[in-house]
Amino acid sequence: MLGSKGGVWGLAVSGLVLMAAANADGAFAKEKVKIAFVGPLTGSNSQHGIGGRNSAELAVKLKNADPATKYEYELVALDDECKPNVAVQVVTKIASDNSIVVAVPHYCSAAAIATVDIFHRFKLPMVIWAAVLPQITYAKKVPEIHRVSGTLIGQNRVGAQFMKERGYKTFVSFADSTDYGKSMNEYFTKFTNENKNEILGAFAVPPDQQDVSAELTRIKELNPQVIYFGGLTPLGTRVRTQMEKLGITAQLEGNSGIMGDAFISAVGPELAEGTLTFFDSPPLSKMPGGKFFSDNYTKAGYTQSPEAYGPFAFAATNLVMEEIERVGPNRAKITEALGKVKDRPSIIGPITFDDYGQNITPLTTKYVVQDGKWTIWEESEYATGKRKLKNLP
Fold first, then answer.
1. Where are the domains of the chain?
2. Fold of 31-151+287-362
3. Would the CATH topology of 31-151+287-362 be identical to that of 153-279+366-384?
4. Residue 177's closest CA among 203, 152, 151, 205?
5. Which of 99, 176, 233, 314 is deepest in the core (most CB within 10 A)?
6. Phi, psi at 375, each rounded to 5°
7. Is residue 147 a contact partner of residue 351, using CB atoms and an 8 Å limit?
C-alpha cells in the first residue's frame, strides 16, 4: 500500500511540477503582434511581390530569433494583384482587423493611391515598400502614410539630364495609362523640355494590353533616337520584344518599373543588353546592409529573387517592428512614432521621413544592362566607350 501511495503521490507531485512549469511558460510567453504585408503575389507582377514578401518575412524571422524582443511577430501576407479594386478590398480587410497594428503595403502605385484614404479612415499606420507615385505621399498630409522608397520625380530628373549629356535630342514617350504611367510621362516631359530636347510623340496603353505593335509602328514612323518607357515590367517586356520584331533600333530608356531580374529574364539578356534605367538605390552589394541581407536571404532558403525592392520591404518591416518595440502594438502610438523617424539606420541607408511621411534620403543611381545584369553606369563598359548605346548622335 505504501508503495502504491508513494506512486500516487509521486504522480501528483509530478503533475503539479508540470502545471507550474506550464504556467511559468505562459507567464513569460511574448504577446503576438500582427503586421500585414500587401503586394502582388499572383499575376504578371508576382515576381516583385513574392520577392518583397520573402524579404518582409525574413525581417520577421530574424526579429523573432532575437531573445531581447518584447513581442512575437506574425506577418500576414495578402495579395493585391497589382489591381486598385483588389487592393481596396484587401486593405479594407486588414484595416478592419484590430489585431493588425501596422502594414507594409504595395509594389504598384495604382494599388497604393487607391488605398490611402482607407488607411487614414481606419487609422492604420503603414510604410510603403515600393510604389513610387509622388501623389501617394504628397497629394495631401495623411499621418498614417509613410514610404521608404523614393518617388519617380528624382528618377526622371536624373534620367533627362543623363540622356542630354549623352547627346540624345529626340524622344518618344510610351507609358501605361494608370496614374503611375501618367505621372511618369508628366515628369519625363517636364525634365526633357527643361533640357531643351524634343518629344516627338506620347503614347499610352493599358498595362495589360498584349499587342502594342500599332503604337510601335507609329513610333517607328516618327524615328526617335530614344523610346522612353514609363510602366512596369510586364508591359515593358512586351514593348522591348515587339520593338525587335518591328525592327525598331531606338535606345530604350526605362525607370524603376523595369528594374530587377524579372525584366532581363523575360526578354532575355540579348534583348535587354544596353537598356537604361534610373532607380533610387545603389545595387544590393553597395547597400550598407547589402551583404547581411543577401547572406540571410540565401540562408533562409528562398529560391526566388528578392528583386529590386526586396531590401526596401525588409527595411520597412524592420522599421515598423522597431517602433512597436519602443511604443507598443498600438496604432495611434505607432503612427506618431513613425512621423518622428529621422536618420534611422537601415540596410538601404538612413531613413528620414519628411512632414508628408516621405523618405527624403534615397539617391538615384544610373543603370545599364550589361551581360545579363543591371550594372552601375559608371562601372560599365558603356561608360568607358568600349560598348555603345543605340542611336548615339
1. 31-151+287-362, 153-279+366-384
2. Rossmann fold (3.40.50)
3. yes
4. 205
5. 314
6. -120, 135
7. no
pLDDT digits (tens, 9 = 90+) for 76-115: 999 999 999 999 999 999 999 999 999 999 999 999 999 9
| C-alpha span between 367 and 374 (Å, rounded) | 6
- What is the homologous superfamily of the domain 153-279+366-384 according to CATH? Response regulator (3.40.50.2300)
Please state, in angstroms and as integers, the Cα–Cα distance from residue 228 to each residue in 102, 136, 181, 189, 313, following that order.
37, 23, 11, 10, 27
Grid coordinates belonging to 31: 504577446
The Cα–Cα gap between 60 and 380 comes to 36
- pLDDT value for 366: 98
Q: Give the model confidence (pLDDT) of 245-280 as tens digits.
A: 999 999 999 999 999 999 999 999 999 999 999 999
Give me the amino acid identity at 251: Q
User: In terms of Cα–Cα distance, which of 164, 167, 162, 161 is closest to 393?
Assistant: 167
| Structure confidence at residue 252 (pLDDT) | 98
Q: What number of residues does the chain have?
A: 393
pTM: 0.91
